[in-house]
Amino acid sequence: DETSKTPATKPKEVQSVQSVQSTLTCVSSRGKEIEERLRSRMEADETGTYLISSRAPVLVAASKDLSPTSVAELSTGDVIQVQQCEVLEEAQRVRGRIEKPAGWISLRNPISGFRWACLKQPQDE
Predict the structure, then answer these.
(1) pLDDT at 14
(2) 6, 40, 49, 85: which one has the fewest Cβ atoms less than 10 Å from its Cβ?
(3) C-alpha–C-alpha distance, residues 80 and 98, integer Å
(4) Across all residues in the chain, what is the average pLDDT?
(5) Residue 52 near residue 80 (C-beta atoms within 8 A)
(6) Under 8 Å CB-to-CB from 58, ≥6 apart: which residues?
(7) Nearest Cα to Cα of residue 85 among 107, 65, 57, 109
(8) Mean per-residue pLDDT for 23-48?
(9) What is the mean pLDDT of residues 10-27?
């Protein structure tokens, strides 16, 4: 019976992230510029220089799939070169292939917005 079906709801994490993203709107042109830069940092993943931002060690795996075995560990503040990005929807991860140490790390959880590494901007130098 179609009337007895309840509509699908999004997980709380998705609702809260979308709620915050939709409510943030700056009025001034400078505020809009800063907000846009922050949004792009939060959402975009591309190749380039990244800074490890996670407090916990970031595990480097041999494959892009989430793997319990690691080939190395990275610490907060380590700088890495991401050569390729892949979205793993089922695992809820954006993974990056890094140059040194060679392997794959999680860059971001697209559902919660949590980041293990942030793209370094020229002004961060």
Answers:
(1) 41
(2) 6
(3) 7
(4) 79
(5) yes
(6) 52, 73, 74, 75, 78, 105, 106, 116, 117
(7) 107
(8) 69
(9) 49
Lowest mean pLDDT among 28-32, 57-61, 63-67: 28-32
Amino acid making up residue 73? E
**What's the chain look like in SS3?**
CHHHCCCCCCCHHHHHHHHHHHHCCCCCHHHHHHHHHHHHHHHCCCCEEEEECCCCCEEEECCCCCCCCCCEEECCCCEEEEEEEEEECCCCEEEEEECCCCEEEEEECCCCCCECEEECCHHHC
> Are the C-beta atoms of 114 and 108 separated by less than 8 Å?
yes
Whole-model pTM: value is: 0.64
d(CA 112, CA 117): 14
- Please report where in the chains the tokens 């709380």 appear, as a residue: 12
Per the model's pLDDT, the better-predicted residue between 94 and 35 turns out to be 94
